[in-house]
Amino acid sequence: MLVLYNIMDVGGIHFKSKCKQIRHSNYTLKKIICEFVDNVIKKCQNINIETKINDNFIYEIKISDDYLNGFENIQNRKQNNPFNMGYIREGHNNDEETSEFGIGMKAAAIACANKFIVYTKTNTKYYKIIMNFVEMQEKEDINNSYNPTDFCEINETEYKKNHKFENGSTLILSEIRKEIYKQSTQEELTKVIKNDLIGTYNYYIKNINLKVNGEKIASVETFFDDTYTNIFNITSYIYILKNNYNKFKYFVENVNPILNKKNLYEYENNKINNLLCKKNITDKIKNIISENKKNGYHIFEPLKNDETNLYCIQITSTFTKFSKKFDNEITNDENDDDKNINIQPNNRFEIYKDNRKYCDKEISNRNNGRYNYSLHKMEFKSKKIGKIIGISFNKDISLDGNNDLIELIKEIIKTIHNKHFSADICSIQYKNLYDYAVKNNIKIKNNLEPKCKKNDNDNDKIIKSTKSINKINIKNEDSDEDSDEDSDEDSDEDSDLKSIKEISLKHNNNKIITENIIKDPIIKKSMNDNNNVIIKNDIKQKEPITKPFYVGKNIITSKDIKKDFEVKNIQKEYTIKLEKNGIENEIIIPYNDEFISKINDYFKKYNVIKVMLNEK
Q1: Which pLDDT tens digit goes with each residue over 37-71?
Q2: How far is C-alpha 62 from the chain's CA centre?
Q3: Among 58, 266, 505, 512, which is least packed, fewest CB within 10 Å?
Q4: CA separation for the pair 358, 366 (Å, rounded)
């Protein structure tokens, strides 16, 4: 017997339920006002924001603009009408427009007010729309519950009575919910809104007349533009290649002015690998793109529309300790005019999409405050990239996902940028930053002088050679003197080669003085003679080695070597051949009190090919 079932009619969500959802979506006063500004800031010349206070609470917010076309498509039906909760139009996929989800304006209005009134001019006609959210929640019919409570055509007189510009729209949010903002005065509220708008639209303000309660907003100089801090700007450019099977490849070009060098990295298998590029990095990137095109890959969503800049994301970090903005002891007080712009950044990460700041993310900080003066900024334009990193309908980016792009972004800040910054005046990083500032004629207050106990002479290491060597160029990992502080960040000994440092050496009477501490003997180098080089290494291990050494055809144990120490006035040297990540190197070590501990350390970190006693 055939049993027929009726189709389950679940219907849609009533406006009352939708209203409840939105009012629990973490909307703030800042997010609400920016939702209305977003829609027109790139389309008009004037935006006015006015507020009214009643019993120390916000009662009304009025936003007016002079956008020529007003609310287009206002006569369309259903999802093609701008007041539909799922409004769909072509501009939502256009990277040149901020609007993306088709719900922002309505959701912001619902989140903060009980009544939303709009006056607009479009196609030479004037309209008035009223959405009384209290009455809409009381409607029985689900579809009808979303319709405005009043929509009518008005005359020019009524339009101009409520709107001061020749064209555009005025949006009035009234009966503001007290949950949106604390008690305030008009003066305090004006400062808060101004600072919020500066922080969000600082790069747009130069091209638009934006006022809050009659006060014009001016753009401010950021730390990235400050002449006292922009010399420290470390920048990474992310190139993304994608094929037709949605597989991605990631490459990073890093420019570090502090070290005066560039590096090229590839992100693969959750690791950043330094490609040790010897040629011009720009040419290398072009070659990478060209070679991958042959395999079906193409550049994914570049930030700029030109052939020379094909990166899709730019990440910039800077060090702000020496900025003059801190001379006036700027605090976190909400009454400060420059709040959110000049306060201590505390390792803040600012995320910009098409020059509009979407959010500030806090990166985990050190207890000793070494990153209190570090600041980071990410810039991108593509809405497709925004979806990958997790942008939400209310303009928030959490970076809580764990996809490859999000992990790469975090890794760049942690292991490529932040390792060069420290506000700890006793650290070697701070001393390097201080010296670099002085070199660039930055005037620094006396109380900011470094107190690093280790001076330049302590960093000198002597390398001896048994042959005449004219010049050696050694590439080695960036050393981090604050080993105790950074142990949690740089604990992976196998990532030695992901950050490379150029070290210049000079030959002087068979002694070569390095300018930096050399910690890793497995190094990429070019030299006239790469044999018979002794590297003095300060690594100390307590445990004796037990593994035998292969010396030619013979095997020498640690006991055999220990016997050498009992023989006085005899100089011996051992050649150790090491290999790591395909790079081989021979290091000559004189046997002395530290010899066994050094050999033991090499066995732990590298592939020791052989150890051979040198004949004198």
Answers
A1: 998 999 999 999 999 999 999 999 999 999 999 99
A2: 34
A3: 266
A4: 25
Please state, in angstroms and rounded to a whole number, the distance separating the CA atoms of residues 586 and 611: 10
Question: Considering the domain boundaries, does residue 538 fall inside one?
Answer: yes
Of 351 and 540, more confident: 351
User: Which residues are 361's β-sheet partners?
Assistant: 349
Distance CA 329, CA 333 (A): 11
Q: Would you say 254 and 262 are in contact if contact means Cβ atoms under 8 Å apart?
A: yes
The secondary structure element, H or E, covering residue 362 is strand 356-362
Q: Which residue has the tokens 């207050």?
A: 445
477: β partners = 500
Residue 259 lies in a domain: yes
In percent, how much of the chain has pLDDT > 90? 52
The string of DSSP letters for 196-240 reads HHHHHHTTTGGGSEEEETTEEP-----TTT-TTTGGG-EEEEEEE
Q: How many residues does the chain have?
A: 616
Cα–Cα distance, 312 to 251 (Å, whole number): 11
Say whether both 169 and 26 belong to one domain: yes
Q: What is the largest CA-CA distance in the chain?
A: 109
Tokens coding 20: 């409840």
Q: Give domain status of residue 433, yes or no.
A: no
Domain coverage including residue 23: 15-216
pTM: 0.69
Residue 10 lies in a domain: no
Q: Are 465 and 609 within one domain?
A: yes
Q: What whole-number distance in Å separates Cα of residue 426 and Cα of residue 370?
A: 10
Count of domains observed in the chain:
3
In the predicted structure, residue 543 carries a pLDDT above the cut 60: no
Residue 253 · residue 272 · CB < 8 Å: no
Dist. CA 344–CA 307, nearest whole Å: 38
CA dist 169 and 83 (Å) reads 14
Check whether residue 391 and residue 460 sit in a common domain: no
Long-range residue pairs from 221-224, CB within 8 A, at least 24 positions apart, any chain: 222/341, 223/318, 223/320, 223/323, 223/325, 223/342, 223/345, 223/375, 224/316, 224/318, 224/375, 224/377
